[in-house]
Amino acid sequence: MVIKLSKILNDINTILVPMVCFGCNTTLRLGERLLCTVCRNQLPLTEYNFTDENPVDKIFYGRIDIKKCNSFLFFTKNGIVKTLIHYLKYKNQEEIGVFLGDWFGQVLKEELALTHIDYVIPVPLHKKKLRKRGYNQVAKFGQRLAFHIGAQYSDTILFKTANTKTQTKKGRLNRWQHDKSLFELNDIDLLKYKHVLLVDDIITTGATIESCAMALKKTEGITLYVATMAVVP
Q1: For position 1, what pLDDT does the model report?
Q2: Model pTM above 0.85
Q3: Residue 182: its pLDDT value, please?
C-alpha cells in the first residue's frame, strides 16, 4: 500500500511539475530518465575499455604508475556532458551521478571488467567544501560502480588536507605543484596488496588524479585503476 501510494504521489508530482531533459529541456516521456532518448543517443561515449590501451592511459605515462584508466564520456566546452556535470556539481542534482554510474557500471559488468577490484574510492573534497556543497559529486557515481562490479565503496580512506580554489584555469605544472601533497591516507596499511579503483568526474590535465595516486601509492603492493565520468579530448 505504501509503495502504491508513493507511486501515485510521484505520478501526480510529475504531472504538476513535468521533468525535463537536461540536454534540450523538452518534457521527458514515460521511461526516460534525466535525458530524452535523442539527447542520450547523442552523448559522446569514448567507447574505451579496461583492456586496450587508450588516450586516458597515456595522460599518466611517465608520471605515476596506474595499471589502467578509462573515461566514459568526452567532455567538450559546449555540450550535453558539460551541462550534466554542471548540474551535478552545482545544482544538487546527485541523481546524475547515479544515472552515469549505473550506465557505466552495467557496461563494465557486461565486459567482465574490474571484477577483481577490492575498493572503489572517490577523489575527496575538503571537509569545508563538502560541508558547503553538502555532497561529493563523485560519491553516487562511485557507489553505483562499486555495486555493479562487486567492490566495496569507501570515502573515508583518502582525504584532502587543504581547501583549494577551482583549478580549471591553472596550467598543468602549476596545478601539479599545487596538488601533489594535498591528499593523504587515514590508514596506510588498509589497502595493502589491494586492487583499488579511483573515481572522479573529469580528467583535464590529470593533475588531481596524479596527486591522489601519489598518496595511495604509499601503500605497499597496491594496484591502482582510474575511472571517470568524462575526459577532455
Answers
A1: 46
A2: yes
A3: 87
Residue 52 CA neighbour count, 13 Å, CB half? 7
Reduced to 3 states (helix: H, G, I; strand: E, B; else coil), residue 93 is coil
Of 101-115, 159-173, 184-198, 218-232, where does mean pLDDT reach its minimum?
159-173
3-state secondary structure of 196: strand
DSSP one-letter string for 17-39: S--B-TTT-PBPPTT-BSB-HHH
Q: State how far the alpha carbon of 110 is from the alpha carbons of 54, 101, 115, 213, 228, in Å.
A: 19, 14, 11, 27, 18
Say which residues have a Cβ less than 8 Å from residue 199's Cβ, sequence separation at least 6. Answer: 120, 121, 122, 123, 138, 141, 142, 145, 226, 227, 228
DSSP secondary structure string for all residues of 31-80: T-BSB-HHHHHHS-B----SSS--HHHHHTTTT---SEEEEEEE--SSSH
CA 84, 21, 24, 41 torsion-angle sign: positive
Task: Compute the distance between CA of residue 112 and CA of residue 195 in angstroms, rounded to an integer.
Answer: 15
Contact (Cβ atoms closer than 8 angstroms) between residue 70 and residue 50: yes
